[in-house]
Automatic annotation (TrEMBL):
It comes from Platanthera zijinensis. Keywords: Glycosyltransferase, Golgi apparatus, Signal-anchor, Transferase, Transmembrane. This is Glucuronosyltransferase. Its main location: Golgi. Residues 89-376 form the Exostosin GT47 domain.
């Protein structure tokens, strides 16, 4: 028995020693594996990682890093994945002029003589272009019941300017149109989209505050409380869109009518190409140009007559300066801001209330300058003159990449104003819509105050 016990003791001791040795070996191996995995992961991250979309693609280290590019390795805009989900999944219903009595008048005037082609031209042409692009969009639906959003076409700014409707007629026609849209009544207008392209914004429809104060408004204009008691722009629901630059300057698949010239060949430090119109800031620039004619070009533009400046001459003048001054006119936005990017001139905003598009993507401090409109004078020229050409070139390079977002082209293009607008619209989609005139029952039936189900609502519908 003694020998057996001793044998068992020796076996147990050896086994225990072996367990201790193996345990330590395992610990060392595990630690080595953790370290190796960490180092390998860091190496693979550097080689193959997909960059996280930054808060602005135009980061401060743009000139050193390719990550500052507008596009990712797949050719998609950086911001789209990061801020608005992984893909566009919109369904937009576009009202046809034949289905709603009055839409024809809002698009071509009381006599139907104003053409879409006429209204496409000029700085307010986006009212037509957005409509035409939506008609061709793959996100258009022909079924109202499945639509996320509804687009109401109107060329009312152009129609008004060409004498097709007066202010009273515009107001009456809009009210008539809205009264024929059950889905507008269903949501209180929350899912309906309107384009108002001028400085007046939705004020072109005098009763906008009563009828479309909850609707989505696409406009280049922001706050106008400097001119009116209430602004029609609401940053929570509305979308700032770019102005309409002449198509001949935005064609990237061919040569534009005017090409930029090197900084060293530009005759002026700055220019302002526009009419004074009796506006304080513009008059100050005219006076400043008289004092410093070698630095600031500020001709009085003629829009009619034999001295009218054609579009080629206009852009030829615009490209002669390093900085393009953009003061406010009747309203805070100015098309000159967008035009300057296509002649590669750094825009200088002299409009304190201005709102700019796609601010969740673009850091405007890296592609433009905003100077107080109360300080227009020699100090402005001194400041601009102090900026080295290398810094100007960097701003121009960044602007060259972002300007595709000012071009009203199909959403199928890798970068366009329409693509940006669609992504912004996707942020406005709600799963549930209601108005003060909609009620619902336990079986999800939508009814009105008379308990009539939605599919039985008849037009014209009463409006507030």
């Amino acid at each position: 028995m003694g020998s057996v016990s001793r044998g068992r003791s020796l076996f147990n001791a050896a086994t225990a020693h072996q367990n201790i040795v193996c345990g330590r070996a395992h610990q060392i191996s595990a630690l080595a594996l953790v370290v190796a995995t960490f180092l390998l992961t860091r190496v693979l991250d550097r080689l193959y990682c997909i960059p996280t979309p930054p808060s602005s693609y135009l980061s401060a280290d743009f000139e050193e890093s390719p990550a500052g590019s507008l596009f990712d390795h797949s050719g998609s805009l950086y911001w789209l994945r990061g801020f608005h989900g992984t893909s566009l999944s919109l369904k937009i219903y576009v009202y046809e002029e034949r289905e709603v009595d009055g839409l024809r008048e809002l698009m071509s005037g009381r006599d139907g003589k104003i053409s879409a082609e006429t209204c496409t031209k000029g700085q307010w042409g986006m009212q037509v272009k957005v409509h035409q692009l939506l008609l061709k969009s793959k996100f258009r639906t022909l079924k109202k019941e499945e639509a996320d959003l509804f687009f109401v076409p109107s060329y009312v700014k152009c129609v008004r300017m060409n004498g097709g409707l007066n202010d009273k007629e515009i107001n009456q026609t809009y009210v008539k149109v809205l009264g024929q849209m059950p889905y507008f009544r269903l949501s209180g207008g929350r899912d309906h989209i309107f384009v108002f392209p001028s400085g007046a914004g939705a004020h072109l429809f005098r009763s906008w505050a009563t009828f479309i104060n909850r609707s989505i408004i696409l406009t280049p204009e922001g706050d106008r409380t400097d001119k009116r008691p209430i602004s029609s722009f609401n940053s929570w629901k509305d979308i700032i869109i770019p102005g309409n630059v002449d198509d001949a300057m935005t064609t990237f698949k061919g040569l534009t009518i005017v090409q930029p010239i090197p900084l060293s060949k530009r005759k002026y430090l700055a220019n302002f190409l526009g009419r004074a119109q009796g506006k304080v800031g513009r008059l100050q620039l005219v006076d400043l140009a008289k004092l410093y004619p070698d630095k600031l070009e500020c001709p009085e533009l003629q829009l009619t007559g034999p001295n009218k400046l054609g579009r080629v001459e206009y852009f030829n003048h615009l490209r002669k300066a390093k900085f393009c001054l953009s003061p406010r006119g009747e309203s805070s936005w100015t098309l000159r801001f967008y035009e300057s990017f296509f002649v590669e001139c750094v825009p200088v905003i002299l409009s304190d209330q201005v709102e700019l598009p796609f601010q969740n993507l673009i850091d405007y401090t890296l592609i433009s300058i905003k100077w107080p409109s109360t300080r227009i004078g020699p100090q402005l020229l001194d400041y601009l003159e102090s900026i080295p050409d290398a810094a100007i070139e960097r701003m121009i390079a960044r602007g060259r990449e972002v300007r595709c977002l000012w071009v009203y082209a199909s959403e199928l293009e890798p970068c366009s104003a329409m693509l940006g607008i669609l992504w912004e619209l996707q942020r406005k989609v709600r799963r549930f819509q209601q108005s003060v005139e909609t009620f619902w029952l336990h079986n999800q039936s939508i009814v009105n105050r008379d308990l009539v189900e939605f599919h039985s609502w008849r037009t014209p519908l009463p409006l507030p």
